[in-house]
Amino acid sequence: MSQQSFSSLPLHSDLLSNLESLGYNEMTEIQAQSLPHILAGKDIIAQGKTGSGKTAAFGLGLLQKLNVKRFRVQTLILCPTRELADQVGKEIRRLARGIHNIKVLTLCGGMPFGPQIGSLEHGAHIIVGTPGRIEDHLRKATLSLDDVETLILDEADRMLDMGFQDAIDNIIDQAPKERQTLLFSATFPDQIENIAKRILIEPVSVKVESQH
Ligand code: ADP
Ligand code: MG
């Protein structure tokens, strides 16, 4: 549909130059619809198919507002599986390439705790993880969400299908009330409507049918 350039948005020049290096010349439909609201600090509930570019939509939003000098966990991204968390972590690192030393840490189940705890002790700006393992770290007090400003639920419908509802609720209970929350889902069953009502404040709804 409408072709829109990222440079029409209030994005740091180093993010714009990374987008250019990646060959992201135009925004995808979901990016064009959601990014202006995300950058304005709004909560979002967004529906879009696989491959529509959701990662860069939330990734650019969180990177734009990240305070790099503050070495605290400012963003938490929840994903249903390790594979998806790894993909999201990679895309965020690509978008953040060369910008100071933005530290992205991936914390997923099925991996030993020791190295994850060691990495957490070194610190991170952004954490990408699966709900079960994030909940484990909160329980062990090896992770604190006190400084989280942006909370992202990626593929929320799949996380609920996988039985992560309670883990997600526990995690959100430990995040600051004053935060920006972005919820992405391929489908919108009642369960998603319910969780959205509980965790989002006056969200902007975005729905994109087509791939791009
Ligand atoms: P989704 O999470 O919606 O399934 P992804 O965020 O994984 O989609 O993006 C799908 C693919 O599109 C990735 O390979 C990504 O690099 C690419 N992509 C994202 N945004 C753009 C863009 N604006 N221009 C070109 N390619 C893009
Ligand atoms: Mg995705």
UniProtKB/TrEMBL annotation:
A motif (Q motif) lies at residues 4-32. Residues 4-32 form the DEAD-box RNA helicase Q domain. Residues 35-206 form the Helicase ATP-binding domain. Belongs to the DEAD box helicase family. This is ATP-dependent RNA helicase. It comes from Psychromonas marina. The chain holds residues 1 to 212 of 462 of the full protein.
